[in-house]
Amino acid sequence: MLYSKIEGEGKPFLIIHGFLGMSDNWKTLGQQFAGEGFQVHMIDMRNHGRSFQSDEFNYELMVQDVFAYCQEHALESVNILGHSMGGKIAMLFATRYPEMVEKLIVADIGPKYYAPHHQTILAGLNAVDFSVKPSRADVEATLGQYITDFGTRQFLLKNLYWKEPGQLAFRFNLAVFNEKVGEIGVALPSELVFEKPTLFIRGGSSNYILDEDVESIAVHFPSMKLETIPNAGHWLHAENPALFYQMVISFLK
Fold first, then answer.
1. Which of these, 18, 65, 162, 169, is most buried using a 10 Å CB contact count?
2. Where is the AB hydrolase-1 domain (predicted)?
3. Burial, 221: exposed, middle or buried (Cβ in 10 Å; 0-12, 13-18, 19+)?
4. Is residue 45 within 8 Å of 86, Cβ to Cβ?
5. How far apart are CA 224 and CA 98, in angstroms?
């Protein structure tokens, strides 16, 4: 069963993190959404956060994980939000189980194929040698040789935890990601359609959703609308949480 943090009471609202993320990334926004009368489920996907680890890793399996989670928690009708990889999961879940989804929100990802582009991040993560019992500062210094962006490094460092006294480790399953990273970019199957209200939110400085993608997105999601957060990159919900929150709540209400 997937690990989750649940906040509030009301209409079930699932939030699914991106690749190398976890439910903790959504803690502040999740609490805000809960304050608006939603029961917010911030979920750790397989091989991420505190959820189980598995050698199998693809979108169809992760959608089945979310379906099993909904059954376990008796969630028959939900709103669902996903960022990046989580957006791909949310899109596939909504098209596979449209009767379970009232509204869909996708943050800075489209249904198209994305070529692998996490090589530098994975190289940095693989360069960390936990056998020498590095400190948190040591891990950050190693990552800094590969990843120049401070925000990205801090995002990755949230995955550090004390496996035992004096021994740090990453929560995610790096070995499986090394092998299966190509699965992250897989396109939504061409025949799948979700006809209910769908909101895509992109970062104005991000290249994940281009103007020319809108037509093909609308083939899958005919009731879609697109909003843009100016001067925000791929981590739009962290870079401008106030505007992101306002866009989501306006759509859900």
1. 18
2. 11-119
3. buried
4. yes
5. 14
Q: How far is it, in rounded angstroms, from Cα 13 to Cα 77? A: 9
pTM: 0.96
How large is the average pLDDT for residues 197-207? 97
Helix 85-96, helix 59-72: angle, nearest 10: 70
Q: How confident is the model at residue 203 (pLDDT cuts 50, 70, 90)?
A: very high
The model's pLDDT over 54-77, given as tens digits with 9 standing for 90+, comes to 999 999 999 999 999 999 999 999
Write the burial class of residue 224 (CB in 10 Å: 0-12 exposed, 13-18 middle, 19+ buried): middle
Quote the mean pLDDT of the chain.
97
Q: Which amino acid makes up residue 231?
A: N
> At residue 222, what is the residue type?
P
Q: pLDDT for 83-106, tens place per residue?
A: 999 999 999 999 999 999 999 999
Annotated catalytic residues are 84, 234
**Closest CA relative to residue 199, chosen from 119, 42, 96, 83:** 83
Q: Which two tokens stand for residue 114?
A: 């994305």
DSSP helix/strand/coil, 154: helix
The reported pLDDT for the residue numbered 126 is 98
Average pLDDT over residues 200-226: 97
CA–CA separation, 237 and 109 (whole Å): 13
SS3 111: coil
At residue 162, what is the residue type?
W
